[in-house]
Write a structure and sequence with these properties.
mainly beta; four-stranded antiparallel sheet; 2% helix; 52% strand; globular
Length: 280
């Protein structure tokens, strides 16, 4: 396997997204959103003091950023102004994390559900939906650390990584954005799926932190491919000129203090056979 490191010495990289000609990602503990065009210098796009994570776009091109600690969705306009798009603190009682948007600009955002990293025990929590006008709704309940998400190209299915339930969970998406027909998409006993991305065959790449690997999984749970990384696998996305570059985010540390001390987060790439689906 020909694995190439393209970004290193970061603090903790989350939510990679390929859009246009750029890879976008959050460095959570550096409180910065970055953009990278292959072969060019890394660009800092926005500073988010309460820790950025999930990224997505509205139909007009404005960037949405989940701001973890204050549990808000921030909106970065084309002129560079950063303002509040939505407040989900009444739905998420602990830090929010990853987020996905669909082609209509609806966003779904997960949250920890407990004091992660501070001695708390995992417990079920809610998934929030934010409509393009900034209104907020409870999309689903009883999820165990809803984390990485994908929306199928037809916009009709949302798939959520439930990290501490060791599975991917699918929902049908109605025209209204309401979710229904909850079902197990893949049971992954012994694994803790984190960030995920979808390829054009319908398989999903999963970052598996405790397994120190990126896994390609078919609906039903069959593991089709495994790429060991030797570090905690955090998140991934497909992109590049032909859509077949898998961008793999990993780290040797997780807590804020350790991440800021070690600067051990990096992004590696590998060319794969099946291209990814385009970001909305």
């Amino acid at each position: 396997m020909n694995i190439e490191t393209i970004v290193d010495e970061m603090m903790f990289i989350e939510a990679p997204r390929w859009r246009g000609e750029h890879l976008w990602f959050s460095d959570m503990h550096d409180e910065t959103v970055y953009r990278l065009k292959p072969g060019e210098a890394l660009q800092a796009i926005a500073t988010v003091p309460h820790s950025p994570s999930g990224l997505g776009w509205l139909p007009n091109g404005d960037l949405l950023i989940s701001s973890m600690a204050d549990r808000k969705i921030m909106r970065l306009s084309a002129d560079g102004e950063l303002g509040e798009h939505a407040d989900v603190s009444h739905i998420a009682k602990f830090h929010i994390n990853d987020m996905i948007t669909d082609s209509r600009g609806r966003a779904w955002v997960g949250n920890f559900g407990f004091l992660f990293g501070q001695g708390g025990s995992p417990r079920a929590t809610k998934l929030a939906r934010i409509d393009p006008d900034g209104s907020t709704h409870i999309a689903a309940d009883d999820l165990m650390f809803p984390n990485g998400m994908v929306v199928t190209p037809d916009g009709r299915t949302l798939i959520v990584a439930e990290t501490f339930a060791h599975k991917l969970t699918a929902f049908d998406v109605a025209e209204s954005g309401d979710l229904s027909n909850r079902r197990d998409w893949a049971n992954l006993e012994g694994l803790n799926p984190d960030g995920i991305c979808l390829d054009q065959s319908g398989a999903i790449w999963i970052a598996s932190p405790t397994d120190h690997a990126f896994l390609r999984v078919r609906e039903g749970g069959e593991i089709l491919q495994r790429i060991p990384i030797g570090r905690q696998a955090i998140a991934c996305t497909l992109g590049g000129a032909d859509g077949r570059t898998l961008f793999m985010c990993s780290s040797r540390a997780v807590t804020r203090e350790a991440c800021r001390a070690k600067n051990s987060a990096q992004i590696d790439t590998i060319h794969v056979d099946i291209a990814g689906t385009a970001s909305p």
